[in-house]
Amino acid sequence: MYRFLLSRQWVILTLLALVLIPVMIELGFWQFHRHQHRVAQNALIEDNLRARPMPVTELTSPGHTVPRADYWRRVTATGTFDTAHEVVVRRRTSADERIGVLVLTPLNLRGGATVLVNRGWIPAAADQMAFPEVPPAPRGEVTVTGRLKADETTGASGIKDLKGLPPRQVMLINSEQQTEVLGRPVLGGYLEQTAPVPSGDTPELIPEPDHDSIGPHMAYAVQWWLFAAGVPVGWVVLVRREKRDRAAAAAESPARPEPAAA
After folding, report:
1. Which domain covers residue 242, as residue numbers?
2. 97 within domain boundaries
3. Does residue 258 form part of some domain?
4. Minimum mean pLDDT range among 47-51, 131-135, 187-191, 252-256
């Protein structure tokens, strides 16, 4: 009755179904884990943004790698901006997706160390080889509040660290690189400025990260699991249809004549 399942066509179809089921289940769990990661990250961002600001020197130090638990932590830093060593970070987008640069200015702290401050976004110069016109940083001692971020690397960001760039232009915000340039201790990571608000709203301060959206990952996970459940159901439907079609074909075919007696 079901001998047709041993045919080459049905053996291949059955093996394909057996392969698809675990693959789809695994893809569902992959999307589910991405959903869990997004939910956990949103909770971390919200908690760190709501936390009381701390002096940046309590969370990082020269050579320190900022852990994920401290990402977006609100921090303060008091010192004097070193505009002579200010650089711009190329190929960055604004909140409305315009291409430009970030203004990265060292802030010399009272204790002698330095922290890098991302003062915000500005348009790039018309000539990419030229240094853009950067709004001046506040003079004298200033207290900056911002979000603590980890050093950018090519591996983590996917941004290629190009060499041979024009003077005072970089691709990544990296404290180790700036330590070599400045010749003095630079705190690990950097500060993404949120206050004081610059005059004329330029540079444009970086908006706080999205921590409300959870994305479509859970919906994708459910879809993959439904697909996995649908494979055996579809296989059974096809088997029953094949059996019915073969039975109908056998019933319609004329009976073979019996051989004549000798």
Report:
1. 3-41+217-246
2. yes
3. no
4. 252-256
